[in-house]
Design goal:
heterodimer, A: mainly beta, B: mainly beta, five-stranded antiparallel β-sheet, 11 strands, 0% helix, globular
Chain lengths: 114, 109
């Protein structure tokens, strides 16, 4: 079955530590996205990539980094510069053709600070 | 930038109808999406509107008025499983066609 896989489901970060969240898709989608969701709030865009080896900052990119070396993979690193990393992180992908391209989401990673 | 507003929470009983409003301000409107999200899970696509009017899909319908910057999601014959957050998202062609999400409306059945 095609879909988006995020791992791990739960992740804990110590002070000063970098952590990486995995996102893999086998939908053959060109575009991939990372969103952050805080309790009771909507999704905010961190980074997005429209094509391999290219990505752009979203609305809240500070303290995060990404790479897009393969079409299927778009890992997100939460760096020690991100002072308030506790949140639910969602990865999504979409095709690039047509304006009605909807996002397909992974099941999310809950990141907490120890 | 964009500004998307929707109510924080709504409560309704089984079998009832609930209407979730979404207002937006955007310079390059290019489509509006509704997603359903159960707690701790991924959002799932419900509907898409780009032209004015009503789109119906079973118990769910979505309406759009571009001139008013307004949309609503109508949930009919509410069931317990409809208890979830409903996210309104707007695509803006002047912002690289990115989707910007509202804060979500939590519906309690």
């Amino acid at each position: 079955d095609g879909g988006i896989t995020q791992s791990p489901k739960y992740l804990f970060r110590k002070e000063g530590q970098n952590v990486t969240l995995s996102c893999e898709q086998n939908l053959n989608h060109d575009a991939m996205y990372w969103y952050r969701q805080d309790p009771g709030q909507g999704l905010r865009l961190i980074y997005y990539s429209q094509i391999v080896n290219d990505f752009q900052k979203g609305d809240i990119a500070e303290g995060y980094s990404v790479s897009r070396e393969k079409k299927e993979s778009f890992p997100l690193t939460v760096t020690s510069a991100q002072k308030n990393p506790t949140a639910f992180y969602l990865c999504a992908s979409s095709t690039r053709t047509g304006d009605n391209e909807k996002l397909f989401f992974g099941s999310g990673t809950q990141l907490s600070v120890l | 930038g964009q500004n998307i507003d929707q109510p924080t929470e709504m409560t309704a009983t089984e079998g009832a109808i609930v209407q979730i409003n979404c207002t937006y301000q955007t310079s390059g409107f290019n489509g509006l999406f509704w997603y359903q999200q159960h707690a701790g899970e991924a959002p799932t696509f419900l509907s898409y509107n780009v032209l004015d009017g009503l789109e119906e899909k079973g118990r769910f319908s979505s309406f759009l008025s571009r001139s008013k910057g307004y949309s609503y999601l109508l949930l009919k014959e509410l069931q317990m499983k409809d208890s979830a957050s409903y996210l309104c998202a707007v695509r803006d062609r002047t912002a690289g066609n990115k989707l910007t999400f509202g804060g979500g409306t939590r519906v309690l059945v």
